[in-house]
Amino acid sequence: MHIADPAVAFVTLEQIRQARERIKSLALVTPLVDVSAAAGRSLFLKCESMQPAGAFKIRGAYNMVAQLTDDERRRGVVTFSSGNHGQAMALAARELGAPAVVVMPTTAPAIKVDGARAFGAEIILEGTTSADRRARAEAEAAARGLTMVPPFDHERIIAGQGTAGLEILEQRPDVAVVVVPIGGGGLAAGVAAAIKQSKPSVRVIGVEPVGAAAMKASLEAGHPVTLARTESVADGLMPVRPGDLTFAHVKAFVDRVVTVDDPQIINAVRWTFEHAKIVAEPSGAASVAAALDDALHRALSLDRRDPVVAIVSGGNIALEKLRSLCA
Asked: How far is C-alpha 219 from the geometric centre of its chain's CA atoms?
């Protein structure tokens, strides 16, 4: 963890606590499942895959849409998403009476496109990168007077995601390490902000795919950088650039960022299904892949009895895809 930049308006513990009250009518307090026997060390899975819309994203999306004015909700909301945030925003918008537009990549899994559409959103397919869909969403917002609900780089989104960190501390007060996947960085930023401002001794580890390690590259450069391309089985962890605000939070509050390769992620999807009976999409299993890696435990000098929590961030995976990964 680094020293916080005084020029950055970091999300506060109070903002995260307020978010928890705001979202409790829809977001679940997800269970912490003990898989220590199967892992051979103290390991618990925070099952955000069990949230409404199948991922942690409902926390941030609902927290932001709930704070819009009546006029903003009446005019509607728009976002750009690889899938899970789009579904969550569509659900939050439906619950709060706002029309929703979701811009998704042409490569988005059908299960995520269909999920957002089922919640009442208008779906626009645009390009293959986060930059492509962001540009289209911004154009739609300007043309139609819609309010942008970004997938990760906003204090209200970060505060909402941080509520998962508060739950972990309450569910496992003796937790030593929390492992969290990083796409754009909203979940890692929020969880780390909640944990480090509550119990600084707990270490927070971010995880990215080897082929989409934008946050790691940015930390090494000292500022957010844009990757030329990203490639991974974890479709939800492939932004080409982290957010400015999420980068600042990760730099300040996350102890280290590690990478896992696609074979590790696929093995973690299989392991989570076989040993925990939990369905995790590849993006959601990246944290499990890191938590199962002996190299991480050696790097952190962890005892096998030190409680580690891995956040399973989502479970939106088609049955045929799950079957192929578990074959």
From this structure: 18
pTM for the whole thing? Answer: 0.92
Per cent of the chain over pLDDT 70 is 98
Domain ranges in the chain?
A: 13-56+154-326, 58-148
Let me know: does 272 contact 45? Beta carbons within 8 Å: yes
190-217 per-residue burial string, b: 16 or more CB within 10 A, e: under 16: bbbbbbbbbeeebbbbbbbbebbbbbbb
DSSP per position, 143-178: HHTPEE--SSSSHHHHHHHHHHHHHHHHH-TT--EE
Catalytic residues, by residue number, are 57, 313
| CB 246, CB 158: distance < 8 Å | yes
- What is the number of other CB atoms lying within 10 angstroms of the CB of residue 174? 10
Q: Give the residue among 139, 172, 161 at the shortest CA–CA distance from 309.
A: 172
Q: How confident is the model at residue 5 (pLDDT cuts 50, 70, 90)?
A: low
Alpha helices, DSSP H, located in the chain: 13-23, 36-39, 58-65, 70-75, 84-96, 110-118, 130-144, 155-171, 186-196, 214-221, 244-253, 262-276, 282-291, 294-299, 319-326
Strand partners of residue 80:
103
User: What pLDDT score was predicted for residue 128?
Assistant: 86
- The number of beta carbons lying within 10 Å of the beta carbon of residue 41 is 19
Choices 3.40.1190.10, 3.40.50.920, 3.40.50.1100, 3.30.1360.170: CATH for 58-148: 3.40.50.1100
Q: What are the angstrom distances between the C-alpha of 129 and each of 101, 108, 186, 297?
A: 18, 11, 18, 33
pLDDT over 90, % of the chain: 84
Strands 203-209 and 32-34: unpaired
Instruction: Report the alpha-carbon distance of residue 182 to residue 185 in Å, rounded.
Output: 5
Domain 13-56+154-326 fold: Rossmann fold (3.40.50)
